[in-house]
Amino acid sequence: MARFDTFVFDLDGTLLDTLPDLVVLTNAALNEQGFPSRTADEIHSFVGNGARALMYQAVPADASPEQAEAAMRRWMELYPVIGNKLTKPYPHMEETLAALAQRGIGLGVLSNKFDQGVHDVIDAYLPGLFPVQYGECDEIPRKPDPTGLLRCIDELGSAPARTAYVGDSPGDVLVSRNAGAFAIGVSWGYHHADALRKAGADVVIEDARELLQFAVER
After folding, report:
1. Residues 19/88, Cβ–Cβ less than 8 Å
2. Rounded to the nearest 10 degrees, what angle do helices 65-82 and 51-58 cross at?
3. What does the CA dihedral 94, 144, 51, 117 come to, rounded to 10 degrees?
4. What does the alpha-carbon distance between residue 72 and residue 15 come to, in Å, rounded to a whole number?
5. CATH assignment of 4-15+86-211, among 3.30.830.10, 2.60.120.340, 3.30.2130.10, 3.40.50.1000
6. First vs last Cα of the chain: how many Å apart?
7. What is the distance between the alpha carbons of residues 57 and 72, in angstroms, rounded to a whole number?
8. Which InterPro entries does this one have (predicted)?
9. What is the DSSP letter of 4?
10. Other residues' Cβ atoms within 10 Å of the Cβ of residue 4
11. Nearest to 182 by CA among 155, 161, 199, 198
């Protein structure tokens, strides 16, 4: 079995279930622009490619680009107000991360969420565990571009061959491939396990504690 001393994680749908807050936030932004609410299932299907992609899909099909951009701006304004009150870590995630950290495993986060949002939610729910955290920003393009993952690996003092990237979407599998890392898919997130296997995940796990079997101390 392949073993790794560095683990980098996707955020939404992998470490944390943020969907309940995203539903509240997205519908608040839509309603303030005069648009109807979306269902949780619809918003679920929009998650994974960043806030702008989410909102551009959430507005009605006949909305103008200007209206979509206005809804996006309002989403960003409401984010610190609505926050992450309904977010929670997935089962066994906190204990697994603590066990990995105790073994000296390098831990990082790379998400398509906007960069400040990544830091806010990690600080709130998984503080002190990730010395390297990146979301989408000017220097870090969205996944599956490997720039962000390669930067995480470098800052953790590792190499792609010693790194597993853990995520819940086909895009997470692809960024792993693009960076030369091992792709671990998770079945508890926002995408079906079959989609991860079809995308080429090296393995798909069903419980966070399974990550421990892939860890090797530095």
Report:
1. no
2. 120
3. 40
4. 25
5. 3.40.50.1000
6. 17
7. 11
8. HAD-like_hydrolase_sf, HAD-like_sf, HAD-SF_hydro_IA, HAD_2, HAD_sf, PGP-like_dom2
9. B
10. 21
11. 161
Return the closest-CA partner of residue 149 out of 17, 7, 2: 7
**2, pLDDT greater than 80:** no
What digits encode the pLDDT tens for the residues 151-200? 999 999 999 999 999 999 999 999 999 999 999 999 999 999 999 999 99
Distance of CA 46 to the CA centre of its chain: 13
Rg (CA), the chain: 17
The structural architecture, per CATH, of the domain 18-81 is: Orthogonal Bundle (1.10)
Token couple for 97 = 């991360």
Domain-wise residue ranges, the chain: 4-15+86-211, 18-81
pTM of the shown model: 0.94
Q: Are 3 and 216 in contact (CB under 8 A)?
A: yes
